[in-house]
Model the fold of this input.
Amino acid sequence: MIYDDDITYQFDRVMRTIIELPDEQIQRLASLGERERLSRAELVRRAVAEFLDRHKTGNLEQAFGIWKNRATDGLRYQERIRDEWER
Done:
């Protein structure tokens, strides 16, 4: 478990990895780390977490049956949309 101010992180699995960053990004991370009093590793962990949160995949159960209350037949809709590609 890692404690950072009021935030607690618990990792079931931790992966150590090596990444290559341009010098400009390293310098900006160092400046931000000094300002925020965080290590570069912590800044990268937070950046990855934010990126993954923004790119979550939807829950498949939410999509199941999405067309059940529509008056349009799904196959006809698909064919109509695909016909537009040929125009």
